[in-house]
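Folded chain entry
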Amino acid sequence: PDKMPVGMYEEDPQPFSLEIFKLQKGDTVYTFTDGYADQFGGPKGKKFKYKSLETILLTNNSKPLVQQKETLSQAFDNWKGDLEQIDDVLLIAIKV
C-alpha cells in the first residue's frame, strides 16, 4: 500500500501506485481502514495491530463472508471491551 492519506495532504501530493492482480474464482479481496489495528483493548490496553487482523482473516478466509463478518465483529468487540472506539472501523471483503 501507499503510505499517504486519501484526504488532505500537506506535502506535494504523489500519485497512488497502480497494482494489477490476476484474481481467480474463490479469491477474496479485503480492504480496510486503520480502525481495527489502532483500536486499544485487550488485557493491557494495547493496540489490536495489523498482525492480529491478518491472523483472523487468514484463519477464516475459507468461511462464508457473513461468518467472517461475525468473527471479526466479535473479535473487535472482545478486544475493545469497555474502552471507547477511537476511530472509524471499516473492512470490505469481495469474494470473486
In short: DSSP finds three helices and four strands in the chain. The beta strands are 28-32, 40-41, 46-47, 91-95. Residues 3 and 9 are 11 Å apart (CA to CA). The first strand starts at residue 28 and ends at 32.
